[in-house]
TrEMBL record:
GO terms for molecular function: methyltransferase activity. This is L-histidine N(Alpha)-methyltransferase. The gene is egtD. It comes from Spirosoma pollinicola. GO terms for biological process: methylation. Residues 22-328 form the Histidine-specific methyltransferase SAM-dependent domain. Keywords: Methyltransferase, Transferase. InterPro entries: EgtD, EgtD_Methyltrsf_superfamily, MeTrfase_dom, MeTrfase_EgtD-like, SAM-dependent_MTases_sf. The keyword Metal-binding does not apply. The lineage of its organism: Bacteria, Pseudomonadati, Bacteroidota, Cytophagia, Cytophagales. Pfam families: Methyltransf_33.
Amino acid sequence: FSESIALEPQTVSSDIDPALVDEVRTGLQQTPKRLSSRFFYDAEGSRIFAEIMRSPDYYLTRSEYEVLDTHKADLLRQFMLDNRPFELVELGAGDGLKTKILIGHFEDQQADFTYAPIDISVDALEGLVVDLRKQWPDLQLNPRHDDYFSALELLSSESNSRKVVLFLGSNIGNFAPDEAIAFYQQLHDRLQPGDLVLTGFDLQKHPAIIHTAYNDRQGLTRAFNLNLLRRINRDLDANFDLAAFDHYETYNPENGEARSYLVSQKAQTVDVNALGMQVPFQYGEIIHTEISRKFTRNQIEELARQTGFAMTGWFTDGKSYFADVVFEK
Ligand code: AVI
């Protein structure tokens, strides 16, 4: 496949996300081309993702909801061991729908805890805060608009309460294997002994079920993937023709990776004007946009072991589609 040509570099307006600029500049010059799913979540992307989570083919959200609802009392017992107050720190809180199951139960039990939701989407965070304040006016809330990695800095603050980091929704599946290890290592460095991490892992299952979740009949995943090109058109003054790209998804049951691609439906050149870039595409050329990994119990235990944690809780739904897993430092 042909190389992209960088024309004279231009100064990029300062209200554009510099991380998106870097991603487009480097990702569209690689072979194969790639763009990270991190950039899916502008206002429209977050809206489509909310629809995906409610869609019949995307089983993940329903399964995790069932896990948390069934096991909320056991989870509270683990979080409250030795009766210390605890601090729930949620990375990527989104609309907080699943976390509300836990918060509702913790409030009913008059548990001594605070809740710090962290998200890169201001819209999602604001909606969540308004909602939580209405439902539980006494809940101690410390919301933060940030990405996961900067948010991890929050954890180093001194406090005598137990930290419970929530990383739900199979967000861990969107990391490459080495990124997942680095992520838990960073968490481990910042936590104190006895602190906990609760992660939602999507489990390996019949490949057809996974394949359908990312090729849903309503075309939501397709719209979600293509929206990345719309975002680049808007933010970087590009001219991707959305009708000339298609969504393609694979699931490989040998390594548990679902992968999303955008496929060029013809030979074409796209201008990214804000970067002075012209990006040539051949017919059938792909942009890799997302990995959604599915795990086995052995892999999860190994991940804990490799990063210095002990796996102290394993909770699944009735079909064993999804697991919420407690790691203790
Ligand atoms: C956010 N993340 C866990 C979702 C997933 O399943 O990987 C994003 C998504 N991509 C396509 N559909 C949903």
